[in-house]
Amino acid sequence: MLHKKHFLALIIVTSVAFVFMLIYKQTWLTKLSYKQQEVEKKQNELVEKKEALTQKLYRLKNPRTVKKYATRHLGMKKMSLKQAKKITSETIPNGTIPNGAIPNGTIPNNEIEENV
Predict the structure, then answer these.
(1) Cα separation of the two ends of the chain
(2) In terms of pTM, does the model score above 0.85?
(3) Domain of 70?
């Protein structure tokens, strides 16, 4: 009789332990599922941001956009062949570069606007 009581108590304790383990497992899976949804949402946001930046890059690389920016923001105008002059160190007095001229022909990064 004593063995039957111990055996019955062992089965009950084991059953209760299994129930708690199942509850813990279900809670753990729910948390992981929520975390996975957050990661997938962040991934989708990053993919959309990448696509938007890629589109912006192609838009900025478009020759019409470059021309529009140059004429509106930099004051450049289309140049005719008659206006072109060859500049050498002999044609510049004292062989120096005039003030405001950029020696290597590049535009500093701080002069390029973010929105065109």
Answers:
(1) 90
(2) no
(3) 44-74
